[in-house]
Structure formats: C-alpha cells, structure tokens
Amino acid sequence: MISGEEIKENLETLQFLTDDFLESSQLILGESIDMEKLDPQTSATCYAFWERREELASLQEKLSNYHGIEKDSLHKLLQAMQKIEKAPFVDQYQTFHQLKRQLENKITSESSSQVELYLNLLIKNRNAIKNPIESNPLEHVMGHLTSPETKLCFYCMVKYQDDIQALAKSMDQDNIFVPGLKLQDLKGLSELSEKTLPLKRNTEIPLTPFVSSQCATHSLSEARAYLHEARLLIESSKKDSETMTSIQELLWKSALGFLQNSKPEEASQSLALACQHLPNQASFGSTDLDDRLRKEPQYGTHLSSLGTGYNKDQSVHLTHCLMDHKPMVTMDFALNGHAVLALKTFREAFDFPDTAKLMQVLPDKFCAKITIKERENHHYLAYTDGTFTTESQGYKLPSTPQTVIEFEGIGRVILGNCPEVKCIDNMVFVEAIPSEDTEKTLSNIQTMLTALGVPPVLVTTRKADHQRKPFLMYSELFILGKQL
Questions:
Q1: Could you tell me if residue 17 is inside a domain?
Q2: Rounded Cα gap, residues 458 and 453, in angstroms
Q3: Beta pairing partners, 258
Q4: pLDDT tens digits for the chain (484 residues)?
Q5: Closest by Cα among 307, 251, 304 to 277
Q6: Handedness of CA 218, 245, 313, 422 (dihedral sign)
Q7: CA neighbor of 18 nearest in space, from 59, 67, 64, 61
Q8: Are residues 420 and 292 in the same domain?
C-alpha cells in the first residue's frame, strides 16, 4: 500500500511533467495534427517528453488508485505518449542524439586516439558539407545535409571551430604531431570551418543558445498563494536544505507575480522576507571550500547541485583572489532565458539606478548605501599567483554594457545589459569583500542577489530540480534546422 508521503512525492513529479508537457500534449492530441510534419521545436519537445516514458508508466501504476483532479492531466499525458511513440521522428532523434553525445565526448576526451577518430570523421564528411556551405546561406545549410552523420559533423565543426583551427596551426608550426592525421587534411577542414564563423557571431540564426521569447507569468492569486505557502514553510519546524530552497523559490516567484500584476510594494515585501530567511550557507561545506579556494587562487572551484534550474548547469564558479591588490571572493554563473527575462522585470520595476526601493528590501544595517552605474563589459587580466590587475589595466568588450550595483562595504553585483549578445547578457558576476568567514561571505552574496530579484542560486538543488536537467539537453535540438 502506497503511503501518503509517496503519493505526495509522485504528485510533485506529475506536476513537473504537467508544467512542461501538458500544453504540447494537448496540441498533438488534436485531430488535425500530422505527426510527420511537426515543426522542429514541437518535435524536440515531444522527444524530450518521450524520454520520460518509463517515469510516466511508473506514475500510472503508483497513482492508479488516486482520484484527485491531477488524474485528468495524467490521462492526457498518457494519451499523448501513445501517439508520440508511433511518430517517425523518435528514431531520428535517437540516432541524432547518440551521435551527438559520441562526437562531443571524443573532442573533449583526454585520449588522443579518440580525438583522431573525431577529426577523421569530420574530414571524411568535409566534401559532403563543403558544397552546401558554399552554395547556401549558412542558416540554411543544416536543411541541405542529407544524413544524421553529416548534420552532426557540421554542428560539431561549428561548435569546435576554435579547437580545430588551433590544432591545425600547432601542427603547421611543428608544435604538435598527431600520427593519425595528415596536416593537409586538417588545414582543409580548418579553412572550411572558418567559413562558418558568422554562425558564432550572428544571434539571429541557428546554433545559438535557445532563449524563450517570454518568461512565465503568474496571476495575482498565484503570487499570493506562493507567498502564503512560503509563510507556512517558514512557520513549520522543518528547516532542512530542500525546505529552505522551496521557501526561496516561492518568495521569488511571488515577487515576480506581484510585479507582473503592478504590485511593486508587495513584491518588495516578498524579496525582503526572502532576505530574512536565507538557507544555511554552512551546508555548502565552507571549511572544505576554504581549502579548495586557497589551493587554486586563480582558477577557483565550481560548486555543483546548486540552484533551482534558473542557473545553467545548476552550478556556480567561485574564486578567492587579490583584485586591485585587495582580497576578494568572486562568483559567476549563467542564467537561462526565462531567468534573464524575469530579472529584467525586476530591474524595470526598481527603476535602476534609483536605489531607494532596493534599500527597503535589504535587512537593517546591511550596507550604508547602494551605487549603480553602467560600464562596458570588463575583464581583468589574471596572473598565476592569484592576483588580478586593476580595472583600468584590464580589457573591455565594446558594445556589451553591464550594470554594476555596488553595496558599500559588502561588494557588487554585475549584470549584463546587452540582449543582442546572449552569452554575455545572461552572465551574473559578483565581487564580494571577504567577511570573517566564508559562510558569512556567501550569505552576503545571497542577500545581494536576492534583493535584486536574481532567482535562487546559492540554494541546494532539490530532487525535482534534478529531474528538470535532462529536458535542458534538448534546447540545442530546437534550433538545429528544419530537418533531422
């Protein structure tokens, strides 16, 4: 007999599947839908759903005696799964995905023999790719390739263009020797890959990160429900890491919902409450973290299994270094498309660079004042001893502005402000002044990010968040072309 706790857990999994796939399921259940002529984005979503077939079958079995309103959603998902299983694109996606994984494993492998196999496969398909590249606009090349292997070779040739050209240059200068590769073949591949350079520069065409056109919206009643649920969790005796993560996400979603319904004061109250109930930063193993940061002052360390899915790879990068000759803890991470657009909602609502509303969100005496300014995207130049040059001696990337929010005596958060360049716009950088211990420093970083409306990042990833990761793997498939 299944327990009430297990039913609750299975319903949470069902809610996750419903949130991501019910809309697509209702679409493909329509009588007029031809499964052989689905657009690339819908078919890729359907394939991502098909990958969850065992999980769905398990839910069907475990919830067989459950009669709540969720049963209707489960029935529709099961009907859609039956229709997807007969679709011709399933086998195509399986083949494509397996080849993609193999090729990417080869180029990143430490085994030189694997790299040789990968490059020889690209060289073998070079002529099949060359004519479509020279005869068509680059954004249409994928549609003119006739086999999964040539499509994958084109994809990897573009993605690893820099690696191919660097290897060809090293072999040409006798800096490296690869027995299984002929220099002339590699140079020909390098020259062909150079013609695909606009694909890496132009954000309008395929092979760029997939970003949603709009972020999720929440009604006013939903925003208030999120806030109510968060308050109940705060008042409960449970203070484990997953509960604290849920509190942070619920308060962030409630704040976003309030802003989307023109309730900025209520949004500020939700963020202020989130700042008052941060998770215990000691759960990240701050003692071990100190040791890891001291060992690699230049490169730092990555903390994984953090966040609720709004930060890519559910990880952050931390360094403990000297910056402008002063000790500094830095952190950086990338947001997904939904989080970037949601964060824009917060920035517009708080009228950057007006800081009065931000000060209301922060805990008392957190900092004396906040300063906000704009600058070009800036990079420090690193040295092997873990120090960094001053900002004026670094280098800048033109036409990629950033917004710098300085919390006096605490640190600063740097947000991208160039939506035309997605890989820069979605990055968040933090430079924090070290406190008496790393745990306090991480808490200060979380407070700054929370007050600005950045989704929960320095929180423990929950089971449901881990379940979402496989779905993100298919975002690249959404934009690979009209044919597979």
A1: yes
A2: 13
A3: none
A4: 567 777 777 777 777 777 767 777 777 777 667 777 776 667 767 777 787 888 888 888 888 888 777 888 888 888 888 888 878 777 776 766 665 555 555 444 444 445 666 677 888 888 888 988 888 888 778 778 877 778 778 877 877 787 788 778 877 776 655 556 788 888 888 888 888 887 755 433 343 333 334 567 788 898 999 999 999 999 987 888 888 999 999 999 999 999 989 898 999 999 999 999 998 876 665 557 777 777 766 677 778 788 887 887 778 888 887 777 788 888 999 887 778 888 888 888 776 666 888 888 999 889 989 998 888 887 766 665 666 666 655 667 777 888 899 999 999 999 988 877 777 888 999 999 998 888 899 999 999 999 999 999 988 888 766 655 544 433 333 333 333 3
A5: 251
A6: positive
A7: 59
A8: yes
Q: Quickly tell me which residue has 């954000």 as its tokens.
A: 203
Q: Is the domain of 131 the same as that of 74? A: no
Please give the helix or strand (H or E) that residue 370 lies within, else none.
strand 370-379
Q: Cα separation of 320 and 300, whole Å?
A: 7
In a domain, 474, yes or no: no
Report how many helices (DSSP H) and strands (DSSP E) the chain contains, helices first.
21, 8
- Identify the domain containing residue 65 by its residue range: 4-87
Instruction: Return the H-helix or E-strand segment holding 117.
Output: helix 112-124
The last residue of a domain, from among 59, 87, 115: 87
My answer on whether 344 and 361 are in the same domain is yes
pTM of this prediction exceeds 0.70: no
Same domain, 34 and 162: no
Are residues 97 and 83 part of one domain?
Answer: no
- Do 53 and 118 share a structural domain? no
- Same domain as 82, residue 108: no
Specify the DSSP class assigned to residue 69.
T
Gap between the terminal Cα atoms of the chain: 45
> Rounded distance, CA 159 to CA 147, Å?
19
Type of residue at 365? K
Compute CA 441 distance to the chain's CA centroid, rounded to the nearest angstrom: 24
Find, among 250, 290, 305, 308, the residue nearest to 274 by Cα. Answer: 250
Token pair listed for 359:
């000060």
Q: Verify that 75 and 128 share a domain, yes or no.
A: no
Burial track 347-384 (b if 16+ CB lie within 10 A, e otherwise): bebbebeebebbeebbeeebbeebebeeeebbebebee
What residues have CB less than 8 Å from 93, skipping those under 6 apart? 43, 44, 47, 477, 484
User: Number of folded domains in the chain?
Assistant: 3
Residue that is last in its domain, among 208, 234, 265? 208
Q: Is residue 186 in a domain? A: yes
Distances in whole angstroms, Cα of residue 280 to Cα of each of 222, 290, 432, 440: 27, 16, 18, 10
